[in-house]
Amino acid sequence: MCTVSDKLILCTCEITDIQRLKHYWILYRHNPEKGELLVGQPIGFDLLLQTENPNNPKTLLDRLNGGNIFDKTIDFKNNDRLQISIQFKENDSPTDYGFEFKNGKWKIFEFDYFSWKSEHFEVKDGKIKNAVSRRKW
Fold this sequence. Notes:
Layout: E1 2-4, E2 9-10, E3 24-30, H1 46-52, H2 56-65, E4 81-86, E5 95-102, E6 105-108, H3 113-119, E7 120-129, E8 132-134
């Protein structure tokens, strides 16, 4: 079974089409004046994979708060949100993990495309190196 690697690195390199990558991240910045109303329902297997791999969000959170997971320094602000999208071999769709920056620390925060886009805008994005680890259970 594939799990999130505890050695992953979030790269800040320029990417023309982030959604074509298997593993990518997007940093969102809060803007309460944006106030867009987006309607719809995303389709995916995110919850299923998070249930099958319950340690994945914690592994990511430990990496985010345990040192610089990014290849370059980024100045985070309160209410920044981070989407980490990882493609596992067991599934055709990527799994999206969400985090929010509060008082100098990242916290797990459910990723919901529509609510995030309504009051946040994309600041940075990039690919993820060493995203998946194969562990024998």
